[in-house]
Amino acid sequence: WQKTLSALCISLIALGCYQYSVTRVEQDGRIEKLEASNQPGILQAIETIPEYLSYAASSGVDPTHIVFVLADDQGFNDVGYSSNDLEGLTPTLDSLAGQGIKLMQYYGQQLCTPARGALMTGKYPIHIGLHHDVIHPDAPWGLPLKEKVLPEYLKT
Q1: Tens digits of residue pLDDT in 127-136
Q2: Is the terminal CB of the chain with fewer CB neighbours within 10 Å at N or C?
Q3: What 3-state class would DSSP assign to 18?
């Protein structure tokens, strides 16, 4: 399960703001895997993380480690698992993707503030007011305080 969650987080984070929903697949009362479908909702994918962490804690599974990979200027075919030309050249990412969930559609942001806002909230930057510019340290505005961010979803 650690590899699945790590791959999910890598998929969500490394390639940008995806729009997929994630659902649980249960067998005999246990979560067997998470499946993605191309329906709107990166937020739903983020919201499944606490459920998984609760399941893991109650079943005696070792604590999960989240692998955070942020790649700049990465194209769709720049990793082996999505390119025939590079197959085998990124074995660790290929392995994580093979055991996890691959989210293959995204819209990358042009600036750091919109990208961070999308990453931390699971929402398009335009929906949280962070789509125009970079937030400078002395700026009188920022992410609305009512927005729930990734660390809040990860609390157990």
Answers
A1: 998 888 888 8
A2: C
A3: strand
